[in-house]
Structure of DUF3253 domain-containing protein:
Amino acid sequence: MSDPIETAILNKIAALEPGKSIEPAEVAKELQPEQWQRMLPKVRAIALSLMRQGKLTITKKGKPVDPDHVRGVTRLRQATEEETALALSRRPPAAKDDIED
């Protein structure tokens, strides 16, 4: 079953025009309008995970950020093919135990 935060993030960025972005707070406010500030750290953490999977890009001042050094005000947008390829190339290789014969 998919995480509701992940689903909300992916649905919101899928509805955007290419090159457009959203604030993580928009997702938090949609999910918990009354206590969105408490939801924001979870939204940011899941967005970071999605970026590492190549499913979205986190930007700051319009430029993609390094997932290991995300700080401050950021936005979320659809990843380009190049950004997805870069994210996937940074993933650690699968352990032998993870590969099925």
In short: The longest helix spans residues 36-52.
